[in-house]
Amino acid sequence: MSFPPVSNPLYSVELFPPKTPEGMDKLKLEIARLNALGPAYFSVTYGAGGSTREGTFETVAWLRGLGIETAPHLACIGSSRDEVREILNQYLGQGIRRLVALRGDMPSGMGAGNSGDFRYANDLVSFVRAEFGDAFQIEVAAYPEYHPQSGSPARDLENFKRKVEAGADGAITQYFYNADAYFAFVESCRKEGIEVPIIPGIMPITNYTQLARFSDTCGAEIPRWVRRRLEGYGDDVESIRAFGHEVVQRLCRELLAGGAPGLHFYTMNQSGPVQALWRELGLSD
Ligand code: FAD
């Protein structure tokens, strides 16, 4: 259930916008370290409802100022068409040609009853294509272990197909630790005639409590044996990191050997774990 390795895989990294000036200063150092690895592009997350708007713009502007290829995320829920148009015009002016188009989840306490002009990510993709033609390469989100709100895997796949038919060029997945889930998802997509590249999202394992909390929210499964081992390390951060590194490195090798068209690293704004993976996997070669 895998595919032949591809000849030119794409490796990219993701950042989130810091909340404070000190966080931004730290991030600038991490950006320099990550950029030395030579990723194809940096993506920068965006809080639905504009909750990280200024931070996203600042981070994107910093990256562009360094001449780095940047893909801002844009989460449409809670936004108006005019707001989205304005943001995209700003990005075009900064030489941005790549976007990650999402629905997003409204932060709690923000905007009940204000879902804005867009309902789903496919609405955003259609809007970008209608207003900006092919000015942007558009990536969308994919869920090999299925989106937590989806009625069924078949329905989720149909909804993923809507985004591709609306004009997405490719997809980045939610993170997962089971390569079979990815390959099975890609196979289902191909059977449905969805041919765009689907790049696995890779979450390094550095902090078990945080990872368990995220995974519960976003529906990503931590395999039982991995969970048990991580729990067993308690507060021993070094052992968690070393074991996490082994698990994720093995996953990446399996994915690339099985034909994944690249890897997108959720860096959590820390260069160290990604640098170690990048080096050992020989991604700069
Ligand atoms: P959609 O594709 O719209 O899907 C959402 C749900 O609705 C799914 O259950 C789907 O099956 C269903 N659905 C979709 N279309 C339809 C339709 N037409 N009719 C009926 N049902 C439908 N969140 C942020 O806030 N900011 C970020 O920067 C961000 N970056 C992300 C990057 C990646 C690579 C990934 C995988 C996720 C990211 N997220 C981000 C999280 C994402 O916003 C959430 O997972 C959100 O719940 C769904 O967004 P989506 O774009 O996948 O939504």
Would you give an account of this structure?
The chain has 285 residues and is α/β, with parallel strands linked by helices. The protein has one domain: TIM Barrel (Alpha-Beta Barrel), CATH 3.20.20.220. Helices cover 46% and strands 15% of the residues. The protein has ten helices and eight strands. The protein has helices at residues 21-35, 53-65, 81-93, 121-132, 153-165, 179-191, 208-218, 224-232, 237-257, 271-281; strands spanning 10-15, 42-44, 70-75, 98-102, 137-142, 170-175, 198-202, 262-266. It has an eight-stranded parallel beta barrel with strand order 1-2-3-4-5-6-7-8, surrounded by four helices. Helix 4 (121-132) runs parallel beside helix 5 and helix 9 (237-257) packs across helix 10. The chain starts with 9 loop residues before the first strand and ends with a helix. Bound molecules: flavin-adenine dinucleotide (FAD). Flavin-adenine dinucleotide is lined by residues 45-48, 73, 75, 100, 102-105, 120-122, 141, 147, 149-150, 155-156, 159, 162-163, 172, 174, 201.
